[in-house]
Amino acid sequence: MPELFTVVTPQEAWRRLQPHLYPITRVVTVRTEDGLDRVLYEDVVAPSDLPAFARSSMDGYAVRAEDTYGASESLPAYLTVVGEVAMGREAGISLSMGEAVLIHTGGMLPANSDAVVMVENTRCLDAGTLEVYRPVARGENVIPVGDDMAEGDVVMEGGSLLQPQGIGGLLGLGITEVAVYDRVKVALISTGDELVPPEQEPALGQIRNTNAYSLSGLATRIGAVPIRLGIVKDDYESLRRAAEEGRRVADLVVMSAGSSVSTRDMTAGVIGSLGEPGVLVHGVSIKPGKPTILAYVDGVPFFGLPGNPASAMLTFELFVTPAIYTLGGCKRIPGPCQVQARLRRNIPSASGREDYAPVRIEEENGELQADPIFGKSNLLSTLIRADGLGIVPLDRSGLAQGEFVVVRLF
Amino acid sequence: MPELFTVVTPQEAWRRLQPHLYPITRVVTVRTEDGLDRVLYEDVVAPSDLPAFARSSMDGYAVRAEDTYGASESLPAYLTVVGEVAMGREAGISLSMGEAVLIHTGGMLPANSDAVVMVENTRCLDAGTLEVYRPVARGENVIPVGDDMAEGDVVMEGGSLLQPQGIGGLLGLGITEVAVYDRVKVALISTGDELVPPEQEPALGQIRNTNAYSLSGLATRIGAVPIRLGIVKDDYESLRRAAEEGRRVADLVVMSAGSSVSTRDMTAGVIGSLGEPGVLVHGVSIKPGKPTILAYVDGVPFFGLPGNPASAMLTFELFVTPAIYTLGGCKRIPGPCQVQARLRRNIPSASGREDYAPVRIEEENGELQADPIFGKSNLLSTLIRADGLGIVPLDRSGLAQGEFVVVRLF
User: Fold this and answer.
1) Residue A108 at interface with chain B, using a CB cutoff of 8 Å
2) Domain range for residue A254?
3) What per-residue string of b and e applies to B358-393 under the rule 16 or more CB within 10 Å gives b?
4) Does B223 touch chain A (CB under 8 A)?
5) Residue B157: what pLDDT?
6) What is the dihedral of CA B150, B151, B156, B162, to 10 degrees?
């Protein structure tokens, strides 16, 4: 019973699935301050200028630039200090020729002033007289009206992730609510006659279901809502019922498809039977994770992931994570955090497949070093000890000690 | 009024603060499945072996290895198939010499078997007779008892972050609850006579408070609880009252310290007056972010961050983020996600300070390219458009087009 699949590269696998993926249509309004890492549904336009008034970017004196032209250490300009701009207040003063006003960083420029002399380039002779040692150009040390955001500007595009600086930017404009895509619902189905729930004591021959929880963690981290549909027996009718329920309750269905060839083939059969176009990929040239199924069935993406914990997590991150981002409306999918590290030992592999080997990372003399963790690469304990997965490219039959390896950090 | 500080490098600044930081003592128990990204309070020890029985790692036949010795394509070994191991069941069979049992990946090895022959290396002659073409060694294709985790092993150490694989690992052992450090409470105080809350229409001279919300986002992302204490006027007594409240309600206090020299000096004065040892650092050789204050006052870390949004966010990430992790019990602080990218334009800088310049990242021909965003580096709109901050090291007076720059991704 050899497994019936044609292996494709991970790039080709994604290329087959990607054109079928569209953002969900559910939109919700959230308070901007609660919108961290949500995806904006539509372009956000600045309702007004930010700043709404010209501000000083330095501590110093607001002046008319022309009054300082030619000023130098040996031949300072002399100005008359006619007041101080209080923070948070309208300047309330209009400058005449030869006048200056004390101003603080962020203060509003008085009428008729057009530049700020830094305090370091001045000296007060007495309460009313200021020496200026350097000339300023018009606009120098001034943040003009609308310099950060101008009224009518698209501040953030629909499909952007709302990061902390975005929250600040929107609130700076007084935008206290935003429309965002709803969270993507991910159904997680665990299959296997040997599985019992974590809280149950397994009998001999049984093991506890862990994949549903590890994969829930991966989904949660990127803002999706995992819906665990429990453990399903390895028979066609049970699988099919679970798959149907999955597409009814979620936007995307992940089946952790058991570890034997026969159950994986059954999973492919069930998914294929649900609708069109059905199974798009069955087999990817990666290790671990070869027997991965990518499918699209009547508007719902389906994933059949291998049952081994390491395979399930890796294939989730390679294929399900970008699918969740796409369904969630995200136009620029954040890549994984990858670093380069120098290998402390060889990683053997085989040409023609992409290998992911657990490594531990250490910094030594300012350079990252990667120690492959061998022997038990598919076990949870290995993943727990590792900091990430070192990638051996498709066209390499291993990487040698001393070479750089790209490591996908957990 | 030149600012009264002695600038130190970011490394030296952290070196001064770090010895004062200890984990908080509040511990809570959470369901393991809800423990994503929490920090374990104590070592977790495996209560039993995982797996609890020897399992097959392949689809094939459980055999006594010695019965296959010498087998080859031309001279196969002949074994008698005496049954099948059902998934999730005790094998219920004991092998005698010359016998084999059909087994699936994850199935429990029958008594007296010690290896599994992959199905690819066999052929069934009839229902009861199996040809084996390759010998297997003892233990081959078998996951022995306790191979993933052995009873008594420390599975995860106290101070570890609970990642998705850790959740899977603990649940695999039936550990459904864990003790974790409580979330770190971060008080955020915004100071400035010019600030109004985001929902309020600012008068001329006023701007909306944004830092408290951007910094809340940064705190939330790493699992801390931001406590916004609102806007405080720039006078000594108000600042002092707010600082006192901060240390009463939180584990760590961040004061976004206004943008003018005088308010920053006042912040340092207030923090210094609260207790010992007081201000440890006032001034860091970074841009933006030079006038940063790090302090430790009677058991509570205090941070005075510059009021400019870009400076506030950067200095939060450089100093407050690792402090939060340390207070939160985390022994191995996750570094920022940094990538190397080729510069498309020069980044000017000055030797003797670490410069952080907003850049946009693009992939081109498999290589990351960094486009510096010039002109408005301290504005929120620039941070929103950027993908991260390119770092010009302390000892460089800029980086040239074509050079690699390390980019700290948002």
Assistant:
1) yes
2) 10-25+185-327
3) bbbbeeeeeebebbbbeebbbbbbbbbbbbbbbbbe
4) no
5) 97
6) 100
A369 and A297 share one domain: no
Structure tokens at A111: 């009428």
Residue B409 near residue B335, CB atoms below 8 Å: no
Which of left, alpha, beta for B237 (phi over 0: left; psi -120 to 50: alpha)? alpha
Q: What is the pLDDT of residues B29-72, one digit of tens each?
A: 999 999 999 999 999 999 999 999 999 999 999 999 999 999 99
Quick one: pLDDT at residue B1? 44
Residue A5 placed within a domain: no
* Cβ–Cβ < 8 Å for B189, B183: no
**Total Cβ atoms within 10 A of residue A50:** 27
* Selected residue with higher pLDDT from B257 and B336: B336
Assigned domain for A258 exists: yes
Q: Flag whether B3 is in a domain.
A: no
Q: Are B386 and B410 in contact (CB under 8 A)?
A: yes
A35 and A60 fall within a common domain: no
A338 CB neighbours in chain B (<8 A) are 339
**Are A60 and A137 in the same domain?**
yes
A61-102: pLDDT as tens digits? 999 999 999 999 999 999 999 999 999 999 889 999 999 999
**Domain identity same for B190 and B322:** yes
Are the Cβ atoms of A88 and B206 closer than 8 angstroms?
yes
- Contact between residue B373 and residue B358 where contact means Cβ atoms under 8 Å apart: yes
When divided into structural domains, chain A yields a total of: 4
pLDDT tens-place string over residues B28-38 = 999 999 999 99
Query: Are residues A301 and A190 part of one domain?
Result: yes
Question: CATH no. for residue B63?
Answer: 2.170.190.11
Tell me if the bond preceding A322 is cis, omega within 30° of 0. Answer: no
DSSP state of B145: T
List C-alpha distances in Å: B402 to A360, B181, B239, B347, B390. Answer: 31, 45, 47, 11, 14
> ipTM of the assembly?
0.95
pLDDT in tens, A7-35: 999 999 999 999 999 999 999 999 999 99
CB contact under 8 A, B338 and A339: yes
Q: Give the residue from A287, A307, A327 where a domain finishes.
A: A327
- The residue-averaged pLDDT of B127-147 equals 95
Task: For residue A317, list chain B residues with Cβ-Cβ distance below 8 A.
Answer: none
Task: Clarify whether residues B106 and B197 are in a common domain.
Answer: no
Least CB–CB distance from A214: residue in B87, B165, B261: B165
The answer to whether residue B32 is domain-embedded is yes
Asked if pLDDT for residue A377 goes beyond 70, the answer is no
Q: Say what percent of chain A tops pLDDT 70.
A: 98
Cis preceding linkage at A277, omega within 30: yes
Whether A97 and A218 map to the same domain: the answer is no
Chain A contact present for B277, CB below 8 A: no
In chain A, residues with a C-beta closer than 8 Å to the C-beta of B314 are none
Whether residue A258 is found in the same domain as residue A384: no
